[in-house]
Amino acid sequence: MSLALLRYSCLLFWLLVWSIASPVATARDLPGSPLVPRLLLHDFEGMSGSLFGSSMSGWTAEPGIFTGRIQYDIAPANRAGGSRALHLRYRFDPGADSDIGWQLTLPDLDASAYDHLEFWIRGDGDIGYADALKIEFKQPLAGAPAGLLRKGSTVISGIGEEWRQIRVPLNLLSGISDWQHLRQFGVVLEPRRVRMPSGGYWLDDIALIKTGQPGPSVRDPVIPPLKTAWENSVGGKAAAQHHLHGRLAGWPTQLTVDPAELPTDDRAFLQRLADDTWRGLVALTDRVHGIPLDTVRLNGSLTPERTWLGDYTNVTNIGLYLIDIIAARELGLIDPSEAVTRLGLALDTLERLETYQGFFYNYYDTTTLERTSHFISFVDSAWLSAGLIVARNAVPEQAWRCTRLLERENYRFFYDPVERLMMHGYYVNLPQRSEYSYGMLYSEARLGSLIAIGKGEAPIEHWYRLARTFPASFSWQSQSPKRRVNRTVDGYTFPGGYYAWKGVKYIPSWGGSVFEALMPLLVLDELRYAPAGLGENAKAHAKIQRRFALEQLGYPVWGLSPSSTPAGNGYSEYGVRILGARGYGAGAVTPHAAALALLADPIPAVANLRQLATRYPLYGDFGFYDAVDPKTGQVAHNYLALDQSMILLALTNYLRDGVIQNYFTADPIIQRVLPLLSAERFFER
């Protein structure tokens, strides 16, 4: 399981997500299906079949925070086929910075039988209008606090003074997948998109229809023809596993290591862990193409017939593997010439992979190098960029190749100038940006924002647009923020605030997991460059991770972060709920969390790694397995390239005085943003 799959499951907060303009079709383009009757949500005439008839029942204003006024009523429509329609009018306050709109409350509606939304719209020529606005549906987010809704939205454009019928494929509203339990339909105006202080619209005959032509979906699989043909030639997927073993550079020789064999000296113990982890990363790499397999499941056995190899990878895995090679050289595990050779092979493979506008797809088959995803991920692309940045500063012989790949990427591709945030990614098959955006400062995506700003491909304003906390009115939060008042840093004004637990102040992440908080420290020494901001927050998160697990949960070990599920072959989100705005639940403890904590609070982190190795059968031939259930002692005998790389890079920085961090911050891209890090103090009075 890679970082990218986690992104699909982390459905970010509904007020800070957007979708860009997408094509819409007229009624004559997509004939309706007679097999599924049209579901009329509102016709404003009281016709039979309408959910709400002619009344305003269900319609409410959804104002922004002190940002403007909206009005609505039912009035004569002047349209053939309908005598009355909804008349919507708005006025933004001067300097408005958040959206306003109208919403129709839906009765837990099941729309799964339909594939298009249909409605009529025109601009109000008497008072003016913008030619684009956003429409959206919302539904409850499973397992989330009440009030936190999942959203699917898209932007319609080309609105004029004449009535126009719009049909939007529901698949374009990519934030929703099952189309059951719909609670709201909304019309949204964003000040930076509308760019008109006031105006109005007419809306009529809002309906769901079935055309039988749903169009492409974010769930459409990519079937790699070369891989499929190869698997068929060797007897199918199960039979192919034997051949995949032959492509590996090595295999573990013992399932578990006796804790008594591990060094008693802490530094020697960490060096042994680094050595074992590197051997595993090399062994579980495709030896032909020189890139790591994403996941290897031993299933409690070293017998190849009982194990499973996930011969796919994603760009975060590749980016971190580039840094792994540098780390191995710095630790003395390989010599400089071998580092150049290994890096060259990985770059050879990168240069062969299919790309889109300079960016790599999220998943590739490690056997055939075919892409297996339609998605271009912002955060995964950023980790590949980070790997290239480190490599070009650490290995001069390969610097020009790394630079060429870096210069192909332009992060304006992900930047939404309306919301001023980085989008989750882009679906090439739709084609359209994803519904979600990275709107919180304290997530692993902050590193990508810094890279984009350092390259001059996102404005500095974007950094201050990222949320430190949310308004107290967001009742789904794990706690209300303290001192959430506007602050001004370097001329940018934004809401501040913080959370607190047992006297420790901190800025929350989304889920309260370790990798959200500390993964950027693998390449960026935030304790050094942002001592009163991100650095202080890193120490707070490490401290609360430890105290919450030991004191609140009663665990003997700590480190909650997304990882393998010890019971079964799954992957799940784990975190300290109070550390996140939403907050994930407790569960498995993962060694990569303790390794990351070395960079923020090293003494208890080392002790925790020792506890994990001695208390549970968690240490194998290639270092730590991915996770353990501290209540049952059950171990997930999996090696995930992402998590193993995090362990190796954290160890290297700790054992070699931040050597990886130094290579990263020496780069001109990062030098440009270091002043941005030191400018902000999170907790000053």
UniProtKB/TrEMBL annotation:
Name by which UniProt lists this protein: Glycoamylase-like domain-containing protein
SUPFAM superfamilies: Galactose-binding domain-like (SSF49785)
The species this protein was found in: Candidatus Competibacter denitrificans Run_A_D11
Domain Glycoamylase-like: 501-666
Domain of life: Bacteria
Pfam families on file: Glycoamylase
